[in-house]
Amino acid sequence: MSGLPPYATFTQKLWHYAFRVICGIVFFFLIAPIIVIVPLSFNAQDFFTFTPEMLALDPDGYSFKHYNDFFTNPDWQQAMWNSVRIAPMATLLSVSFGTLAAIGLSQPHVPFRRALMAILISPMIVPLIISAAGMYFFYSRVGLQGSYWGVVLAHAALGIPFVIITVTATLVGFDRSLTRAAANLGANPVTTFAKVQMPLILPGVISGGLFAFITSFDEVVVVLFVGSAGQKTLPWQMFTGLREQISPTILAVATILVTISAILLATIEILRRRSERLRGMSPG
Amino acid sequence: MTAIDPPVLTADGTPLKASLRRALRREKARAFLLVSPLLFFVLLTFIAPIADMLFRSVENGIVHDTIPRTVQALRNWDPGESEVPGDDVFEAFYTDMVFAVERKSHTRLGSRLNYERTGLASLFRKSGRRVGKFDTKDYADAFNTLDPAWGNPATWDVLAGSEAANLPRTASAYATWLEVIQADGDDPLGEEPWDVLYAALFSDLMQAPAGGFASPLLNDAQSAAARFEPISLREQFGAIDEDWLDPQVWRTIQTYAARYTPGYFLNSVDLKLTADGVQYRDEGDRIYVLLFGRTLYMSLVITISCILLGYPVAFLLANLPLRTANLLMILVLLPFWTSLLVRTSSWKVLLQQQGVINDILVALRFVDDASRLVLINNQTGTIIAMTHILLPFMILPLYSVMKTIPPAYVRAAKSLGATDWTAFWRIYFPNSVPGIGAGSVLVFILAIGYYITPELVGGTRGVFISNRIAYHISSSLNWGLAAALGTILLFAVLMLYWTYDKIVGIDNVKLGG
Asked: Using the beta-carbon criterion (under 8 Å), do A29 and B313 form an inter-chain contact?
């Protein structure tokens, strides 16, 4: 695939380039909608399309007014603040419970392993609207509906499968003789965990945590039902904005979020490679 | 060699087998202990809510809890009759309604029954306002003229205890009355007995054997009551609204009196429970089968679009040198990591009639400025946006399967004389089918339960069943129906998930390539 052999026929050449064009179009389809909102968010007008000034690359066609609006509008600021308060707490809960359980699940003898795994992964499988409905019914029964902790617990539950999956994946390559060696040298289980096991699985734990964080940070369906106006998060505010009066400020917020995702993605990629290198699964 | 080998012993003298078994048991216990905090957490925050939803889809205690006496009395009524139920039902209903109005629960019951028969909500609301002003006041006056002791709640308290066997209605009405008064924080002894108690007493006295009471007060009242002008509660209710004289209303109440009902599930598939059994809903009300069908159809279209777009890309990525592939992979992973709301908003912006896509098409003269394409708020919008959103979920599993196909297979086929197409179709493609299967099930599962994107770009014709669930939770407040629709969707997804587990295995779910 990488190169055409010199003896390729005309049809083969034609197909080779046609195929690349097709793939290019699909890549364009994937990335264009995300890229296109970046210049649009600097629009000096309240339009959702490129103005003639923008196309002429006239500096007057661009402005920071939508960003300015985002940073001064109390609704957006409150939403931002709520997101920042909810997501880290939910992440903390999912990571601490999830890592512990992933270590348990990676032991050689676990009773009911399949059933346990199915239960713990289920929040990822069940459609969000169903989780949201169930949580809305149940949390209003126990008085958690519309409270900060209600949203945090719900988001923590949704983030758990990601932590379990990434951490167990890291533990698959974990050499158990390392812990035995540590014990042999006189380390107690806590020291062994802190000094030997944890540093090795840390990349997995962090990327699981990032998954859990982005799950909570981007989540809108569950918070829409479990939260009340006091827990209005950034995605919720975007959702309302999109449904009622769509304002170009949304594009500014979207651009900021795309930047955050790009940073998170880069972090996860670096961590994954580091983890593979540490476990000797890939060279360099 | 001896007949029985002596058991192998460990250093401390226990048999090796027992010692090993103990060690294994301890290891299992430790593993379970590590998992248990999370298990407990998930059971509490996630599994319990799902169980609650399943329970709500059949639960129907409201009718029984709000009008228990009526439910009891209606048991003896044959719904096949064309006549409305007898006086005993109306008497029971009067008692229930008075207390329900006091507890403000009659409107909730009205809205519950309104799902099954339109008009009942307003009927209950209207009756709630009038039920306290019935002519049963005449009974109260008559009894009090007879003996002022009837105006004292203490009299009732004694009689409801000692004569309960002969005064069943009075005793039960008095007990509820006490509850209602005490719930308000008032002292029952300082209250005047309500008309509803006198009505219950009158009815009891009429039906008890003459002179059969231990208390002379009751015997006197019984002989006097025979001369009272009887008040027909049926007419009183009929005066509020003629609907109370319609047997259909009573049939609905009787049908939905049970604590658990399949009614919500029947409603979810456009059927309804009636006194004559299960029937189709009216033509105009049949929307759920259509909606389920549309959800399945659109999820299928989205899945197929994802296969068509994702397969070439995954093929390219799997066959390029690692460095280039990793670079191109970013183009797949960035959308995967970008907020769903961001992607949905960008589609909303792009697909508008004054949006970028229409502008480009007009600029290129593909479409006329006057006839810009309607790409949003319909099925097209939902399909385009969701294909984009779910495409990475197709590419990633496809890529990981294609990565494992040894390139030697295709080379071998070609060296044996296969053309490019034959080598691909007969060798490469069959090897990549597990990837298609895994990706399709994943995309289909995700698509079938989507809510946000259809809600924002789907308009009215591009929405899924999940939008209807959300509508019933937050707007129509028909939680039972929302729970039933959710349960059906949940089981559909679990079935698919089970298939996915068979194809790929839960443990092999990979994230981010």
From this structure: no
